[in-house]
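Tutorial handout. Part one gives the primary structure; part two gives the three-dimensional structure as C-alpha cells.
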Amino acid sequence: MLETERSDSWRRAFRVELRAEAIGLAFRGWPVLPGTYPVAGHWAGREGVEDTGPVPVHADWRERVGTRPEQVATWWTGHPYSLLLATGFGYDAIEVGDGLGRAAARVLRSIGLPVPIIATPDSRWFFLTRSDEPLATALAADADITLHGAGDWITLPPSPFQHGVVHWRVKPEVCGWQIPSSRVVQDALLDAMAESTTTTPIHLVGA
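Part two.
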C-alpha cells in the first residue's frame, strides 16, 4: 500500500512539472504535444501502441500543433504524459550517439556558440535546430545520425523513460532561447567526425 502511495505521489509530482514545462514552451511558440508515458514496463496513454512509446497521445496530433497554451494546459490535467516536440514546424532535431554528441558539443563550446541539446537515458543526444535544410551527404550516410523533421517528433525534458529521465545537456536559457540554423550544428558534427578520424591511433604491423 505504501509503495502504491509513493508511486501515485511521484506521478502527480511529475505531471505537475511536465504540465508547467509544456505551458511555458507553448507560450514561447514551441509545438508541444502530450506523449505516452512508461508504466510497469510498457507505454500507457494511447490504446494500441502501448509498447512503442513515446508517441503522441492523439492520433490527430498534426492538427493540434499550434494549440493555444490554455488548451495545452488541459492535456496534462489527468496523466503524467511525456512532453513531445513536433518537428518540422519551425524546429528540427539532429539525433546522434553519445560519443559524437559530446564531441560536437565541445566543438560548439570552443567557438562560443552553445545550442540547446537534449540527452536521453539510452545515450542519445538531440541538437535542436531551425527547420531550414536537410542533412549534409556525409551525415545522412551515417546510420547513427537521424534528422527529425516534418512528420516526426522528439521527447523533451523532463519526460520519464523506462529507466531514467530525459534531460537538458544545454538548456535553451543558456542560448537566450535562440535556436541555431541546421548548418551550424551540422558543421560542428562534421568537424567532430573529422577530428575523431585524425586522432585515431595508427597501429603499425609488428609494433
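Part three, for discussion. The first strand starts at residue 32 and ends at 35. Confidence is low (pLDDT under 50) at residues 1-6, 200-207.
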